Amino acid sequence: MSGQGQGGGGGAITGPVKIAGTINDARDYPTPRGGREIRRGHAVVVHMVVGVDGRARECRVVEASPDPEADRRTCQLAEERFRFRPARNAAGDPVAAAYGWRQEWF
User: Which domains, ranges and CATH numbers included, belong to the chain?
Assistant: First the structure.
């Protein structure tokens, strides 16, 4: 039977799709001398919320790298640069939804 559940419904049926924005330049991470060596070979995983406007917000680190300042900077850059096609609900309306990003340093 439909329509008799306890949930509020309206959740995302399709997830957000990243359509613009990059973080791929070492100059994006101005760090003290030796900072690049600390990051090299490591990654940070961040989660954010993509709003109905296609912008990232509420970024937070969920798997830290050895460089906390670079982790913070990754969230800042994601919120500034990334643009998304927002998630959609069953009716096709845009809805806010979670999105994860793994930033690796080589």
Answer: 17-24+39-100 (3.30.2420)
